[in-house]
Design goal:
The structure holds two protein chains of two kinds.
Chain A: E1 5-11, H1 23-38, E2 47-51, H2 55-58, H3 63-71, E3 77-81, H4 87-100, E4 106-114, H5 121-128, H6 144-159, H7 163-177, H8 191-196, E5 199-201, E6 204-205, E7 214-222, E8 235-243, H9 258-271, E9 278-282, H10 288-298, H11 304-309, H12 326-329, H13 334-349, E10 364-371, E11 376-383
Parallel strand pairs in A: 2-3, 2-4, 9-10
Antiparallel strand pairs in A: 1-7, 4-7, 5-6, 8-11, 10-11
Helix pairs in contact in A: 4-13, 7-10
Chain B: H1 17-24, E1 28-33, E2 38-39, E3 54-59, E4 62-70, E5 75-81, E6 88-92, E7 101-105, E8 114-117
Classes of the chains: A alpha/beta, B mainly beta.
Chain lengths: 386, 131
Amino acid sequence: MKDLRIAGGAMTPFNRRKDGSSWRDWCLVAFDEALRDAALEVADVDALVVASESDFFSLQLNPAAMIADALGLHGIRVQRVEGGGATGHLAVQAGAALVAAGLARRVAVLGFEASASHLDGASVGALYSLSYDAWSEGESGIGSAAIYALSARAWMAETGATEADFARVAARNRQNARHNRFAHLPLDVTEADVRASAAVATPYRRLDCSPLSDGAACVILAAPGDLPAGAGRARLAGMGVANDRVRLGDRAAPGRFFAKRVALRAALGQAGCALSDVGLAEVYDSFSGAQLQALDALGLTDDVLAAERAGHFTAEGALPVNLSGGLLGQGAPVGATGVAQVLAAAQQLEGRYHGLRPAVPPRFALVDTHGGIATLCAVSILEAPR
Amino acid sequence: MKRSLRLDYTLPKGRLAPHFDALAEGRALAWRCVCGHVAFPPGLTCVACGARDGQWIELGGTALVEHRTDTPEAAWALARFDGADTAVMVRIKTPELTTSRGHLVPPEEDAGLWLALEETEDENRSVRRLE
């Protein structure tokens, strides 16, 4: 794969905006800061990939054209990418493909979502219920939490995972987020707090669920020869995407996220590294159990539950996971989520991440994101600059 | 700024119309592929072999709950209808019951699949315990 670098990046705080700012403002801030981080000018960007899940949130169709105009980008290649929860990550991979194909030299990938403050929670929930098979699951009024809960139930029945395991993940990610100045839910909560929070969809409670967030994130992608910093930034070494059956009931094992493993194999193959080389991961934890299901599907350890219970995935563990706080702690403005995951992993590898960091930056990091319920899965492998 | 949208969609059901028409009557119409795989709910392509040819068959409408989740307002389950090779998400019409078998009923408030649970567990018919 062509040598591609994450030349720079930035994000706004992820939260529920109450300051009167608009998603156009957030995009502008993330883009300008990302350019500054990459030591580039607006005129250096020759392609813009916008990640946005739903026009129902922004009430702006064709948002890529609108954002390009707002950023002062004209006469360049502009496109929009959408893939449910994986939207931002898919946009990063689409931007990388433009560079790899020689269609652009410096691509800005800009993800945003206004999923917290523009609509009431019930309306957002109703829209998200259309993320599955809108003609079957969506028709009965089921929401994301209940669908994830059913998958979690299946995984628990197969593996022996408990609500305590889920609560540990939920509390840890919120604690990790306390070091992240952009995080939506940097909460000082314990496992007991999680298990005492209000029931949402058994086995999930309120603190097992990621929040609806507003925000934007941006990364700049380019080959080293097109960058002032040359090869001094993290490399996007491998990319994979794979899909699964949309309906849980059509899957052989509704608790298993098999498509992640397929995507991972492709990404590892491109990166030319082994899974055992991965020393840090940002994993899609829309719900606490989903983090464990993801780690299980990715095969990052032989026994995920034993590893989880032994502290393997903590900042001090052998494979730190979601030091940013993940979706549970950092938040989840959907289009920006995957972009921010990639940004966090890149900055960790460069040893300049602002939040919680491992004692020694690893050489390889993994980023995992999905749409639906692991229906559309994106995995990337990043490598530290050398 | 304040904006309000009211959107009234008309969604043609296409090739799956017989299934949805039957659901509205509380009947379970499945698709049996030429390979023998029975899909309920049906899809446009067989999940087992990829074929698109087959025929509609009517199932008895009884199902076994494999996994269940309860929310403060309602309950849903992943259930497998007798005679089907796939499972399906259903809304439980009788959330106060915790038995594992039920039967399809016509939808009430929303559309979709609704399952009314049996009041007592039939140990001879329940082959899988609900967790």
